Every structure is written in C-alpha cells, then in structure tokens.
Automatic annotation (TrEMBL):
Pfam families: GAF_2, HATPase_c, HisKA, PAS, PAS_9. Residues 458-476 have a biased composition (Low complexity). The lineage of its organism: Archaea, Methanobacteriati, Methanobacteriota, Stenosarchaea group, Halobacteria. Residues 357-409 form the PAC domain. The keyword Cytoplasm does not apply. Residues 162-224, 282-352 form the PAS domain. PANTHER family: SENSOR HISTIDINE KINASE GLRK, TWO-COMPONENT HISTIDINE KINASE. SUPFAM superfamilies: ATPase domain of HSP90 chaperone/DNA topoisomerase II/histidine kinase, CheY-like, GAF domain-like, Homodimeric domain of signal transducing histidine kinase, PYP-like sensor domain (PAS domain). This is histidine kinase. Its main location: membrane.
Length: 805
C-alpha cells in the first residue's frame, strides 16, 4: 500500500473502530462523530471484519481498537496486520483495561498511540492523538499539514495532556528505558527512567550524554543499532547481554526509533531475563536429572494424560517414551490404582501441610508379570493455584517387599521357636523356618552331645544316622568318648539329596572347624575347599553357622555362590535365635529334671519321716500308758522316779516332733505363692502365745514363699525367745531393705556362738532341743534366702533374713 500523500487534508479520513462490545462500540462512535466531524467512522466487531475493512483501505485510513478482542488481543492483531502488506496503517489503542505496563508494551510493539478510555476528556485525547499521527505522517512525506478550522484550545490542551501522560509512562514504566540520539561518530544517552537507574546501577545525571555502547555493551558483544536495523516506525527485538554495576545480566530488548525536530531518537526498553535464564537453567538441569536418574519418572497434564516420561520409565514398562506420551495411565495401571492415584492427589490438594504423598501400586509391563512399585506423587499448580497436572517418581519395591515378607516370616517363626519345649523340637522348628521363610531348602541342624553333656535326646543321638558318604564330606565317625555333632533336624530335600545325614566328629571337617572356632564358614563352591572329603559332592554353596556350645546350623545349595549377603544375614539371625531357644529349652529340661528329682527326694523324706514317727512314737505311747497305770501303785519314794520317767518321755516326744519339722522344713520348694508376712506373724503370735509382747513398727512386705514353712519359721523364733528370755520378752518384727528381721530384748548370744546357734542340737538351755533355730535355717535355705545372726538394739538376739540370698 502506498504511503500517505500530500493531499491528506483535502480528503476525508476514515477510522476503522474495532470493539466486540456493541454498546461500547456505538457509544464511542457517537462521541467521535460529535468531536471530529472531519472523521469518517467505520465500526467493526471482530478481527476478521477489520481485515476485510483494511482490504479496502486508502491512504487516509487508520485503526482504533479495544485491547481485549475476546479471541485475541490488540497487540497480537497488530503483529499479524504488520506482517501483511498493510504496513503503514496507524494503530491506536483505545481501551479501558490499560495501565502503564500495557502502554509500554503498545509503544514497544509499534502501535502509533495509546489512550485510556473512561477518563475525563478521553475522546478529546483520542482525537488529538489522531491529529498528531496524521501531522507526523504528513511531515514524513514532505508535506505541511493544512490549517484545521476545527482545532481548538481544548484539542491543544488534550494534546499537551497526552504528551504529559507519555512522559509519565516513561517515568513509571517497570522496565528500564533508555533514550539515545545517534550522532555521526557515536551515540549519546539523552535520558533514562528510574527503572533503568535501579536495574543498571547508574544515576540519571552520571549517565546522561555518555555513550550507551561504551557503558553497557560487553567487549565480546556487538551493539544493536535500532535505526539501521529496521528503520523508522518499526520495532526491533533481540535477546542481549548488558553490563550493570553488579555484573552481566540478560535482557529482552525492544527498540524503536522516532524522528523529532530532525533528530532520530532511539528508545531501548529492557526486560530482565536473568530470572528467566535461571529458571531455564534449572529446567535444563531438571530435564537432565529426569533423563539420567535411575528411577522411573513421569508427569501428567491437568486432564490426566501422560505428558512426559523418562527412559527409565519406558524401560521399566518394556516400551518406548513415544508410546507412553499422550496415553492414559491405564495403559500400565489397573483401574483401581488409577483411582487411588487420583484420590491421593485430591488429599494433597486439600492438605496445606503436605506437598507430596507416597502410595503403592502395581505396574503392568508390556511383557511380564505385574510387580509392586512405590509412587511418590505431587501435584503441579500454576502461580494462581490452578491445578496443572502431577509429577511422580517410581521405585520398584518388589525386592523390598519380598525382604519384608522374609523378615516377617522369620519373626513369626521365632515365636514358634521360643515356644518349642525340647531341644529336638526347637531344631525341627528352626529347620522349617529356614526352609519356609528364607527359602533355604537344603539345611540341617546338628547338636553337640557327649557322654557327660548330652544336648540331644537319646532318640536323636542314636537315631541310626551314622556316617554317610556322599554328603559334602564334612563328616567323620567318632567311636571314642569325645563329643560329636548329632543331626537332629533336616529338610526332606536334604535327605533326598544326601541319602542320610551323618554325625560329625572331630577331625578334618569344615563343620567341626566352624563349630570349634565359633565362627561361620561360607563357601561359594565347597568342592574347592581345602578339607573337603568328597570333591564329587552335589553340594556347591554351603554355609556353616555355629550355635555357640549347642551345635551347628548348615545350609547348602547345589548352585555355586547361591547365597547373597541378605540371605546370609537372615540365616545368622535365625541361628542366633536358634541358639537362644536351644539354651532355653535345655535349661528348662534341666530344671524339670531337677524339679522331678526334688519331688522324688521329698517323697522319700516324707516316707522316712512318717516311718520314724510311727516307729518311735508307738513305743513312747505304750510306755506313757504303762507309766500312767503305775501311778496308783507307786509310793512316795517311787513317785519321784515316775516323774523323771514322764519328763523323759515328754522330751523324747518333743525331739521327735522337732526332727520331723526339721526334715520337712529342709525339703526343696516346688511351688510358692505371694505370702502376706503381716498375716503370718499374727497367726504365729496367736499359736505360740498371744500374751507375748509383739512390736511391729512398720508393715511387712508380701513375699513369694511357701506359707506353711514361713509360719513354722516365725513360730520357732517366737518359741525360742520365750524359752530363752521368759514370758516378759518383747519381740520386734520389722522390714529391712532386702527382707525382714526378728529381734528380742533378751541377753543375746555371744559373738563366738552366733555361727553355731543355727546348727541342729545347739541350745543354751538345758531344756532346749537345739532344733528351733536350725529349723529356721532350713526354711530360709529352702527358699533360697539367707539369715544373719546379730545383736538387737536392746542387746538381745536379732535374725536378719535377706530375700536376695
């Protein structure tokens, strides 16, 4: 299209006015027609209608447009128009949605002017802008604009106001702006705005009249000459690097040139790209990370479609990235897992304190079985908080799950292990655990046994498992008296492979070496071991794990190097638990044996005591009866002899009673119960003599004991005090830190005799039996307690019983 001609003011001027809002469009048209009668208005509602109108444009055509055009905006529309043949049509932006940023962008894009709608005098400003544009166009073509009778002072005022507004836009633009003038040899800075001062670090006064090339352009960069690049009326854009007082920064440059009073002024508007560049570098690093990280990663868009996957994701699923991108996650997940992922994202979005969550799901590869993975998922949101998709990092946890299952089964099996009663049962359960929980299908457990320390049952020791050839040759016969390792438990696979499992004795044996050294021995291929006896054994991998002094745990495989570190670690854990269970079972068996033997001893003692009581008391009873029958026939002289005989018989009866009590008190305890000592003391006091003075300053403890025997203890101490001190004795019973003490206020016992008073037969009284405190000692020993003889605060006897032994 031709440039504007010199006949510009002799012909009507047409303004194509574009606004999609019909009410605003009509109101603006009416006001323009009223303010500028010389202007012909052609209203249109769409960009398409504008393009049709421009097809018929003349050199007297200009465009007035709203910014928001519903399907696009005025700046984008201008760029498209500029790209066509219609390059000299002036565009004015007349909008109610503008601000300084929009005005700056409009000027940088190349629009001819900007007038905000809705402020006082906006129509007059718009008309003034049109006149200015038309005048500039006439001068550019060498014409002088004709006098216009319609110009009035208000129009001039509007023009001055508009110029002031553009000055304000320059001052308040958020982007740095520099105005330079091109001189023959160099450039010179005319002005900069405050944003330029802040960004570049120069005061306006110190930079004015200096060369922008010398100050801002790095030595390794070339300046952008805006006028030479595009000529007047066009906009140049470029990404540039400029020097600031803080160093180099990246900017997006938008530049245009205007001619004012014969001088060409270049406007350079800089938009800082440093943050953008930093984000781009971060994005590039992120892309590199995503592409190189070993774990599968993906992103979904806001509709849930796969937007990006890395190579690890594609490899894991057995497909390509191209096949996954654009697809729905249901291509590799079940519907339930897709729904679980959706619910997880919803939970994150509702929880301000959580930015990501982890959940488990099953991957379904193209070929192969589904496997369990862990998805660490996070939503993606825009700056305004709008959901924009999600990102996830996948980790294959199938191995971890299997490991957790093995550990859980090992833990459950250990409870069974600890519940087994005999050592044979413990070994059998351990072999089953190794088979079922650890997949150690070939295993055997040998327990140590000899003539004096038998740790296995007689059945296992003599179970016909003599030495056998064909095992891993880690066996030997032992016909002497030395201890041997007897096989007590093994799997069916072990017997099927080896035939029979041998007893292992001292000698050139891997198993015995490990047992004797107390250290595990692991062979990746047992055929290459130095002391292997059968190089043709079917066993290849083998581990010998000692069980302390209890025996050895052997696991085997027909595959070389078949035991990974994790399996060996779990096998050692099982061995440690097995050792503890064997020790427990052995102790419990020994305790049961001792308890049974004690019960047999007690039964024999009871039978002996009953026999002694019967055989001794029957003659005494007969003698006492005859003595009573003699009483009428004895004269005064014989009465004294009869009384001596009666006293002797009574004493013999007391001795028999004390002997029986002593015998029963010394029996080992088989059962105990919580005993309230205060109650026992009260009953003993009433039994012996309620009139005795009993002092109990503090409550006594409750102890685990045999109540009948503890009653005998207190009764004998109380009787001993009454017999040796008298009826006026005061007895004190009090708790101590480790038990209780019983004291009296009698004459006490010399320190030289204190060790003897607890012995049978010792008594300081001619009428005493010497069994009272010996019975106390037997009761104390039967409970595993201890008694200390000392002196009370009153100088009498004090017995301190310690429950700690």
């Amino acid at each position: 299209m031709a440039a504007f001609g010199s006949s510009r003011f002799r012909q009507p001027t047409t303004a194509i006015y574009l606004d999609p809002n019909p009410a605003v469009r009509q109101r603006t048209v009416d006001r323009l027609r009223s303010a500028a009668e010389w202007l012909t208005i052609d209203p249109v509602s769409t960009p398409a209608a504008l393009r049709d109108a421009l097809a018929n444009a003349t050199e007297r055509t200009c465009v007035i447009t709203e910014y928001d055009l519903e399907t696009t905006d005025a700046l984008s529309l201008y760029e498209r128009v500029k790209a066509s043949d219609v390059t000299t049509v002036p565009f004015l932006l007349y909008t109610a949605d503008g601000d300084e940023r929009l005005a700056s962008d409009a000027i940088a894009t190349g629009l001819s002017g900007y007038v905000p709608r809705g402020v006082d005098g906006s129509i007059n400003r718009l008309v003034a802008q049109l006149r200015t544009i038309l005048d500039d166009a006439a001068r550019a073509n060498g014409d002088e604009p004709d006098a216009d009778p319609h110009r009035s002072d208000p129009t001039q005022q509007a023009l001055r106001s508009e110029r002031a507004r553009f000055a304000a836009l320059f001052e308040h633009s958020p982007d740095p702006v520099a105005i330079t003038v091109q001189l023959p040899e160099t450039d010179r800075i005319v002005d900069v705005n405050p944003a330029f001062e802040s960004m570049f670090g120069y005061e306006r006064a110190e930079i004015t009249d200096r060369s922008i090339d010398d100050l801002l352009i790095p030595d390794d960069d070339e300046p952008v000459c805006i006028t030479d690049a595009v000529g007047l009326g066009e906009v140049v854009t470029a990404e540039v690097e400029r020097l600031t007082t803080d160093g180099r920064r990246n900017f997006f440059l938008r530049g245009f040139a205007v001619e004012i009073d014969g001088d060409v002024l270049e406007y350079a508007i800089y938009t800082d790209l440093s943050e953008q560049k930093r984000r781009e570098r971060e994005l590039e690093r992120y892309r590199t990370l995503v592409d190189t990280v070993g774990d599968p990663m993906y992103t979904l868009d806001e509709t849930g479609q796969i937007e990006m996957v890395n190579d690890a994701m594609a490899d894991t699923l057995g497909t390509t990235r191209a096949d996954l991108v654009g697809n729905h996650p249901s291509c590799c997940l079940s519907d339930d897992d897709v729904e679980r992922a959706r619910e997880t994202l919803q939970m994150i979005l509702k929880d301000d304190d959580r930015q990501w969550r982890t959940f488990e799901m099953e991957f379904e590869p193209v070929d192969g079985e589904p496997f369990l993975v862990e998805n660490n998922v996070a939503p993606l949101v825009d700056e305004d908080g709008t959901f924009a998709g999600s990102v996830g990092a996948i980790r294959d946890i199938s191995d971890r799950t299997k490991r957790e299952q093995r550990i859980r089964r090992l833990h459950e099996g250990t409870r069974r292990l600890m519940a087994a009663e005999s050592t044979d049962d413990v070994a059998r359960v351990a072999s089953e655990i190794a088979h079922d929980a650890l997949s150690l299908e070939i295993n055997a457990i040998h327990l140590y046994a000899d003539g004096t320390d038998r740790r296995v049952s007689s059945d296992a020791a003599a179970g016909g498992r003599s030495a056998a050839t064909g095992a891993s040759a880690n066996s030997s016969q032992n016909d002497g008296d030395d201890g041997v390792l007897v096989p007590v438990a093994m799997t069916d696979e072990t017997e099927a492979l080896l035939g029979s499992v041998p007893t292992i004795g001292p000698g050139n044996s891997i198993a015995w070496d490990a047992f004797e050294a107390g250290e595990a021995i692991v062979h990746g291929d047992v055929r290459h071991a130095e002391n292997v006896r059968n190089p043709e054994t079917p066993i290849r991998s083998e581990a010998h794990i000692p069980l302390g002094d209890e025996g050895i745990f052997i696991v085997s495989s027909t595959t070389p190097n078949d035991f990974d570190p994790e399996t060996l670690t779990l096998a050692r854990i099982l061995a440690a638990n097995l050792e503890a269970a064997l020790e427990r079972a052995r102790r419990e068996c020994e305790l049961a044996d001792r308890t049974a033997e004690l019960e047999r001893q007690n039964d024999r003692l009871d039978a002996f005591a009953s026999t002694v009581s019967h055989d001794l008391r029957n003659p005494l009873t007969l003698a006492a009866g005859h003595l009573e029958n003699l009483e009428p026939h004895v004269d005064a002289e014989g009465e004294s002899y009869r009384e001596e005989i009666a006293w002797a018989l009574d004493r013999m009866d007391d001795l028999i009673e004390h002997v029986l009590t002593l015998a029963r008190s010394g029996q080992r305890l088989t059962e105990t119960e919580p005993v309230d000592l205060d109650g026992v003391v009260d009953r003993a006091h009433r039994t012996v003599d309620p009139s005795l003075d009993l002092d109990r300053p503090e409550p006594l403890p409750t102890v685990e004991a045999d109540q009948d025997r503890v009653s005998v203890l207190f009764e004998n101490v109380f009787r001993n005090a009454r017999e040796h001190v008298g009826d006026d004795v005061t007895i004190t019973v009090e708790p101590t830190d480790d038990g209780f003490a019983i004291a009296d206020d009698g004459p006490g016992v010399p320190s030289t005799d204190r060790e003897q008073i607890l012995e049978s037969g010792y008594s300081t009284s001619p009428d005493g039996t010497g069994f009272g405190l010996a019975i106390v000692s037997e009761v104390v020993d039967a409970h595993g307690w201890s008694v200390t003889v000392g002196e009370s605060e009153a100088g009498g006897l004090r017995l301190a019983i310690s429950l700690e032994g």
